[in-house]
Amino acid sequence: MDVLIVNLTGAALIAGIVWYFFLSRRAEAGLASAGPLAQEIHVTVKGGYSPEVIVARPDVPLRIHFRREETSACSEEIVFPDFGIRRYLPAFETTVVEIPAAKAGSYGFACGMDMLHGTLRVGEEPEARAEGPLPPSQAGWPVDPVCGMRVDPARPAATLTRDGQTFYFCHPGCKERFSSRG
Q1: Which tens digit of pLDDT belongs to each residue from 41-83?
Q2: How do beta strands 53-56 and 62-68 pair?
C-alpha cells in the first residue's frame, strides 16, 4: 500500500511540473500603440521575447523597440523572414526595427538561430482595428500601462496600487514588467 501511495504522489508531482512548465504557459501579447507616423511597441529580449505576440493594425508601419537584456549568442539577431529583415541586437541596448505597412495576417519572427520565436499579428484582434471608436462597453476601461491594451476593471488579470493610483493589467506578466521598472 505504501508503494502505491508513493507512486501516485510521484506521478502527481510529475504531472504538476509538466503542466506548470510546459502546458500552462500562455503567450504574452502586446498591442502596438498608435504614433503620429507609425505604430510602436517595446519588446524585451531575455530568454525569449516579451511580449512574444505583437498585435498591430493593418496598413500602418510598425516600429519595434527591441531591448536585449542578455548576452546569449542566440538572441543577438532578430529575423523577420516575411519582410526580408535581419538585424543585429547589441546586448543591453535598444534597437529599433521598422516593419513596413503590412496587410492583415500572421507573421513569424525568430532569433538568428531559430530557437526563440514570436508572432506579429496584423489586424487579427479586435483592438487592432485601423479606425473607428471603441465599443461602448470599453469606452471607460483603463489602459494597461505596459502593453496599451484596454482592461475590464471588473475582471483585470492583475492590479497594483502605487501612490494612491490603481493600475490595471491584462496579464500578470505586464504587472511584473511594470513593477520591475520601479
Answers
A1: 999 999 889 999 999 888 889 999 999 999 988 899 999 999 9
A2: unpaired
Count the residues in the chain: 182
Phi, psi of 97 (to 5 degrees): -115, 125
Residue among 76, 16, 26 at smallest CA distance from 46: 76
Written as nine digits, the cell of 171 is 496579464
Identify the burial level of 103 via C-beta atoms within 10 angstroms of its C-beta, where 0-12 means exposed, 13-18 middle and 19 or more buried: exposed
Q: Bridge partners of 88?
A: 77
CA distance 44 to 151: 22
C-alpha distances in Å from residue 119, one per residue of 3, 55, 155, 173: 47, 9, 26, 17
The three three-digit cell numbers of residue 39, written as one number = 505604430
Question: Facing residues of 165 across strands?
Answer: 162
16 is written with which cell numbers? 504538476
Cα(first)–Cα(last) distance of the chain, in Å? Answer: 53
Q: Which helix (H) or strand (E) holds 10?
A: helix 2-18
| Structural domains in the chain plus CATH codes | 23-132 (2.60.40.420), 134-182 (2.30.170)
| pTM value > 0.70 | no
CA distance linking residue 150 with residue 142, whole number of Å = 6
Q: Which of 139, 154, 121, 142 is nearest to 28 (CA)?
A: 121
